[in-house]
Design goal:
The chain has about 110 residues and is mainly beta. The protein is built from one helix and nine strands. The chain has a single domain, classed as Sandwich (Jelly Rolls), CATH 2.60.120.10.
C-alpha cells in the first residue's frame, strides 16, 4: 500500500514531527536505529518511539501486534497501523514510529 505525499518544506514538516512526538510522548525512550540489512523485529511499549533516517532507501513497516503511528518528513499524511497491517515508507528522510499500545513491528 503506497501513500501519496504532498510536498512540504522540510523545516515545517520537521518541526511538526517533533511537536507532535513531544505532545504524544509518555515514555521518552528513543530506540536509535542502525542500518537495517535484514528484517528487524522491534518491541515498543505504549508511548515508545523509534526513528530512522532512511536516506532514500524505501522501507516497509509491519505491525505484528498492537497499534502504531507512523509519520515521515515530506509527507503530510500520518498513518496508523493495527495488527496485521503494513506500510511502505518512501525513504526520503526521517521516519518516526510511536506505539499507541504495547506493540511489535517488523522493519524491512
Amino acid at each position: 500500500m503506497k501513500t501519496s505525499c504532498v510536498s512540504a518544506s522540510k523545516s515545517s514538516v520537521f518541526a511538526l514531527l517533533f511537536k507532535r512526538a513531544l505532545g504524544f510522548m509518555r515514555v521518552a525512550a528513543w530506540k536509535k536505529s542502525q542500518d537495517i540489512q535484514q528484517p528487524r523485529k522491534l518491541k515498543l511499549s505504549n508511548g515508545g518511539l523509534w526513528h530512522i533516517n532512511s536516506h532514500n532507501e524505501p522501507r516497509q513497516i509491519e505491525c505484528s501486534q498492537g497499534k502504531i503511528w507512523i509519520t515521515q518528513s515530506g509527507c503530510m499524511a500520518d498513518i496508523v497501523l493495527i495488527s496485521g497491517q503494513k506500510q511502505s515508507v518512501n525513504g526520503q528522510g526521517l521516519v518516526l514510529v510511536q506505539a499507541l499500545a504495547d506493540s511489535e513491528l517488523m522493519i524491512q
